[in-house]
Task: inverse folding
């Protein structure tokens, strides 16, 4: 039998079998199942010494196969299989079933199918093992094909088989197959089984067949907590949070008791509905009934508090977990990263690594998103290395997060490389790449990527169109942008939202078509938002249309009077036009309303530190060197034809004072520090919290040409890449 290799498996040398086989007594198996992976492996290897005594005992061999599955060591199970063949036990039904279960759940489908094919008699148990393993490993179509073969074999499914098949149909989005299985369950009398009925309900809910789902739930004669859990999860999936909350209350009313799954579903509903009070009440109830110590409930609470922007409460729950698992760490890291606590998220991630927690795609994606918001290129590159080390480099979500991180950290060509090396791309990936090109001023690349996306059959969503319109705005492509906007619904089925209107107003405003931009606002199908009026005010400031700008500002103040950015825009518009009386009035109104403008600043990361500068800043330890470098740069630039543009000094000062004020802007100080702190050939990366002024923009172009330095500046609107005396924005920003 061994020589013929009838199962088509790899032949195992006899000495390897003797050293690897795990033939355990029942006590050894029980112990193995309670140990860690490493301890379990050691125990299995040590138990191989019992081979000579136990290799003829079929029960011990079955336990060996089961233990190999528990410990996720299919190679040891294959060794046990070899011994089964050697001892002539291959015809024993229960051993074959154990082997099918091992191979199918280890995603060795061919081996599982081969063992099943050689069984002289097959009942529902081995078929169910094969189907369950296929579903567990995402082979949903294969699971349904196995079911057809099972029917041809004359075997009826049981209450374990049908839920697996229904899950496969749900995962494939095949409502028709699901309904056929529903009808089949009625035919064979399994439709009243609680697990079968809940699986069918889950399928209908996930496939959007809400009427069928509700009818099925109403027809369940005895609703257990499992049934209620299905209703809660289905309601959450379909955005019906109120129904989920009602179901949670009904559970108590009818005398049922919620379990951990109930609490997790209800907390998801509360976070999706932005209902922190209801979630807190559920937290109190969980403490009352003793579920607060359940790790899955605690994880749900961490996630709930994080999504409700209550990071402190999430941290308290996390700290109370006695044995935090990978989901606990992932939820806490995401809570920090998504609520402006990116540095804390990085610290938590490092702590998790020290405690031996293996990074998951969710955890890594959260950290990369945090790096993107911080523009933390160094940390992002460190994470990229960890992605390769952890084997997550082919994960589409991690890849998308990397593209987004590099794009928002000023390294667009690294984003480009990651994008084109990804084996699989989804809509999020394409959006991240288009947005990256747009923010960096590479308009043609953004539009060609949009075309390539459509050629690959990926349908755009509303975010895609926002990125495309933004690219047209940054590039001054008025006609192209308007063409995309006017064909959004007809061509892509996407109705214009406030974000799209804001992009169009910005597109027209930047190009000087202020009246056309105003007309777009007047004819909007929805109420104009602050972002729409803000785009018009920004265009009026650039082109000096004080009258229309004042009207836009009035509309902005009606929507949000206390946003300092709107007042600053209006003040700058008046100041740039020399209308100092109106500018002074704006300042006085801000003072009377208690509105304070945050100071403008620029920062630069050099080695392990972040250095922050304000206008005329002299607090840095290397101030003397910084100002000496600025003096040297000014002499070189004036020799090359530089003339200070004092119109960007928005204060009523003498010309000489304006030049002095202008020369010591925060971004120039950061540039000088970068010049003295980095080697030639290393790009200087600077971030500013406000829009870069026109004079600083000219200075950066001069420096990049005279000293042959690459400079990447990120302001509050976009990236500017300076190289050889030119900027990627082509002086259109």
Result:
């Amino acid at each position: 039998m061994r020589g013929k290799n009838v199962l088509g498996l790899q032949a195992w040398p006899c000495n390897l079998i003797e050293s690897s086989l795990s033939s355990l007594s029942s006590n050894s198996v029980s112990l193995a199942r309670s140990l860690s992976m490493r301890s379990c492996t050691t125990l299995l290897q040590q138990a191989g010494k019992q081979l000579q005594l136990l290799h003829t005992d079929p029960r011990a061999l079955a336990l060996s196969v089961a233990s190999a599955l528990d410990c996720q060591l299919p190679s040891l199970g294959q060794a046990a299989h070899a011994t089964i063949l050697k001892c002539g036990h291959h015809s024993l039904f229960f051993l074959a079933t154990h082997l099918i279960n091992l191979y199918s759940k280890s995603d060795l489908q061919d081996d599982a199918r081969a063992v099943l094919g050689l069984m002289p008699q097959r009942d529902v148990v081995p078929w169910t093992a094969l189907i369950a393993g296929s579903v567990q490993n995402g082979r949903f179509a294969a699971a349904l094909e196995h079911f057809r073969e099972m029917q041809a074999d004359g075997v009826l499914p049981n209450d374990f088989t049908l839920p697996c098949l229904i899950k496969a149909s749900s995962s494939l989005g095949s409502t028709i197959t699901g309904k056929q299985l529903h009808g089949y369950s009625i035919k064979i009398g399994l439709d009243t089984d609680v697990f079968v009925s809940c699986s069918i309900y889950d399928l209908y809910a996930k496939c959007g067949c809400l009427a069928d789902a509700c009818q099925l739930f109403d027809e369940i004669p005895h609703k257990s907590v499992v049934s209620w859990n299905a209703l809660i999860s289905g309601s959450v999936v379909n955005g019906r949070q109120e129904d989920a909350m009602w179901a949670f209350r009904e559970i108590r009313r009818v005398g049922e008791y919620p379990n951990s799954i109930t609490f997790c579903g209800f907390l998801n509903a509360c976070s999706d509905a932005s209902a922190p009070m209801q979630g807190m009440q559920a937290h109190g109830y969980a403490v009352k009934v003793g579920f607060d110590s359940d790790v899955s409930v605690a994880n749900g609470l961490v996630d709930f508090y994080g999504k409700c922007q209550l990071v402190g409460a999430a941290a308290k729950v996390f700290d109370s977990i006695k044995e935090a698992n990978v989901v606990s760490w992932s939820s806490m890291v995401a809570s920090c990263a998504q609520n402006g606590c990116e540095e804390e998220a990085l610290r938590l991630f490092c702590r998790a690594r020290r405690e031996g927690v293996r990074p998951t795609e969710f955890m890594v994606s959260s950290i990369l998103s945090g790096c993107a918001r911080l523009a933390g290129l160094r940390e992002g590159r460190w994470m990229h290395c960890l992605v390769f080390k952890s084997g997550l480099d082919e994960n589409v979500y991690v890849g998308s997060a990397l593209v987004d991180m590099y794009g928002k950290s000023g390294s667009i060509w690294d984003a480009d490389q990651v994008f084109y090396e990804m084996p699989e791309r989804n809509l999020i990936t394409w959006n991240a790449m288009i947005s990256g090109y747009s923010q960096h001023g590479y308009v043609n690349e953004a539009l060609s990527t949009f075309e390539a996306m459509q050629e690959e059959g990926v349908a755009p969503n509303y975010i895609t169109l926002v990125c495309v319109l933004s690219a047209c705005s940054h590039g001054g492509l008025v006609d192209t942008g308007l063409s995309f906007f006017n064909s959004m619904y007809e061509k892509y089925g996407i109705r214009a939202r406030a974000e799209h209107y804001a992009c169009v107003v910005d597109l027209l405003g930047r190009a000087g078509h202020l009246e056309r931009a105003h007309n777009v606002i007047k004819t909007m199908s929805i109420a104009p938002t602050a972002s729409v009026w803000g785009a018009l005010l920004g265009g009026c400031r650039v082109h000096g249309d004080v009258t229309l700008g004042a009207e836009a500002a009035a509309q902005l103040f009606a929507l949000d009077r206390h946003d300092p950015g709107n007042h600053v825009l209006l003040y700058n518009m008046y100041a740039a036009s020399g209308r100092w009386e109106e500018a002074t009035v704006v300042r006085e109104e801000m003072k009377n309303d208690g509105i304070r403008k945050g100071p403008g600043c620029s920062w630069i990361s050099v080695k392990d530190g972040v250095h922050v500068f304000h206008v005329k800043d002299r607090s840095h330890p290397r101030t003397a060197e910084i100002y000496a470098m600025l003096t040297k740069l000014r002499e070189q630039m004036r020799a090359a034809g530089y003339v200070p543009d004092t119109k960007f000094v928005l204060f009523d000062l003498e010309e000489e004072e304006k030049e002095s004020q202008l020369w010591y802007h925060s971004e120039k100080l950061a540039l000088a520090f970068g010049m003295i702190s980095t080697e030639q050939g290393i790009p200087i990366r600077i971030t500013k919290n406000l829009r870069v002024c026109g004079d600083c923009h000219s200075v950066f172009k001069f420096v990049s040409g005279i000293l042959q330095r690459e400079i990447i500046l990120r302001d509050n609107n976009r990236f500017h890449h300076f190289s050889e005396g030119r900027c990627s924005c082509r002086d259109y920003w």
